[in-house]
Amino acid sequence: MKITLITVGKIKENFYRDAIAEYSKRLSRYCKLNIVEVADEKTIENSSDTEINLIKEKEAERILKHVPDNAYVITLEILGKQLDSVELSKKINSLGITGESHIIFIIGGSLGLHESVSKRSDFKLSFSKMTFPHQLMRVILLEQIYRSYRIINNEPYHK
Question: What PANTHER family does the record tag this protein with (predicted)?
């Protein structure tokens, strides 16, 4: 299985980079992982709705360039479906069983995803109604993907 994370913006803090590197290494036993960072747009405080939409549209163009037609796309969205770890593992496993060979997870920028990205999504996933820093969300997502593979392979994991 090939897993791709497409994320907006760069990781700035070393502790996030270290955690991402650790989970990437752990995941290498289970899947081929690729992380694609696309540039984020500068957000001006008190931007109008039109300016916000334009920013999200530019980020969406960068994201969608990396999404092949045959990939299964999971977007992270506040209004998406919330799954527990076992349910996420079943989702990933069932995609593999049904012949999906490439899953793409997309984490948008600070303003969220443009509707064009959301429309391309095959599954909208929410980790919480709370808002998390985008850099931390990458770590959380990688940890949950790793946990999913541990569950799929009947290996111990913390409940």
Answer: METHYLTRANSFERASE, RIBOSOMAL RNA LARGE SUBUNIT METHYLTRANSFERASE H
Would the pLDDT of 25 be above 80? yes
What is d(CA 3, CA 31) in angstroms, rounded to the nearest whole number?
7
Residue 105, annotated as binding a ligand: no
The CATH code of the domain at 2-152 is: 3.40.1280.10
137-146 residue pLDDT tens? 999 999 999 9
75 is in an annotated binding site: no
pTM above 0.85, yes or no: yes
So what's the pLDDT on residue 133?
Answer: 87
Q: Where are the domains of the chain?
A: 2-152
Known binding residue 88? Answer is no
